[in-house]
């Protein structure tokens, strides 16, 4: 069944507003004035309310009783908790993937690692960030996909959505630095090697360490920008 034009507008509003919040067009704690949103996205109140309700569920927006909406605050405590939760669940899912994954799972990891490591011709910094980020997500999703648990994958996606504002601060510090990108490439190559060797304990430990490396970088950026 095809979606209605109204549904499509709501989906568009959600994606545009989420992207702008993640990229810092709206600051943590900033009030989201409906008049400003209508003008920015050229949309009516209905689709915008649908988008805001979805973003409240994802904890990117906070509903203020009878007074509209604000961008959710950011904090070092939330940063630490979200990244620790992600690292713990990703390590657990990797253990299961090593136990359950087949040859097709291994091939999928190798293919995405190769695509991620390739040098890309792009039209500008934002395109580079988008392409690297998408390929990076695909690489990590391919790794944990071998756990064959839709429910665990859903929990992981929820955490990923909540951490995206923090991740974006790290991405901008990493993707535009050749040195940082090379360091990530080496981490990914080492991780793949241990995964293919089916060393579950070492792989889980390496995954936890790998996923926690952005935290000090994000902490420094948050202090620099007055977000902490």
TrEMBL record:
Pfam families with a match to the protein in the record: FCD, GntR
Protein name stated in the entry: DNA-binding transcriptional regulator CsiR
SMART domains: FCD, HTH_GNTR
Ranges of residues in domain HTH gntR-type: 7-74
Naturally occurring in which organism (per UniProt): Halomonas flagellata
Key words, A-Z: DNA-binding, Transcription, Transcription regulation
PROSITE patterns (alphabetical): HTH_GNTR
Gene Ontology molecular function terms on file: DNA binding
NCBIfam families (UniProt xref): PRK11534.1
The keyword Transport belongs to this UniProt entry's keyword annotation: no
Entry annotated with the keyword Signal: no
């Amino acid at each position: 069944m095809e979606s209605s034009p109204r549904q499509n507008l709501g989906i568009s509003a959600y994606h545009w507003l989420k992207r702008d919040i993640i990229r810092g067009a709206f600051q943590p704690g900033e009030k989201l004035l409906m008049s400003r949103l209508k003008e920015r996205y050229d949309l009516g109140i209905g689709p915008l309310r649908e988008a805001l309700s979805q973003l409240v569920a994802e904890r990117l927006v906070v509903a203020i009783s009878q007074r509209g909406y604000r961008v959710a605050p950011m904090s070092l405590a939330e940063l630490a908790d979200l990244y620790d939760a992600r690292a713990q669940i990703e390590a657990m899912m990797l253990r299961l993937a090593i136990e359950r994954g087949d040859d097709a799972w291994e091939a999928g990891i190798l293919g995405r690692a190769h695509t991620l490591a390739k040098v890309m011709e792009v039209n500008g910094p934002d395109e580079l960030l988008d392409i690297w980020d998408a390929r990076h997500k695909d690489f990590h999703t391919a790794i944990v996909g071998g756990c064959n648990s839709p429910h665990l994958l859903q929990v992981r996606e929820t955490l990923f959505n909540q951490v995206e504002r923090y991740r974006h601060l790290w991405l901008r510090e990493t993707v535009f630095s050749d040195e940082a990108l090379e360091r990530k490439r080496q981490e990914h190559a080492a991780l793949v090697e241990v995964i293919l060797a089916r060393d579950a304990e070492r792989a889980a430990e390496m995954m936890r360490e790998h996923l926690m490396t952005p935290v000090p970088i994000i902490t420094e950026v948050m202090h620099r920008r007055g977000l902490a």
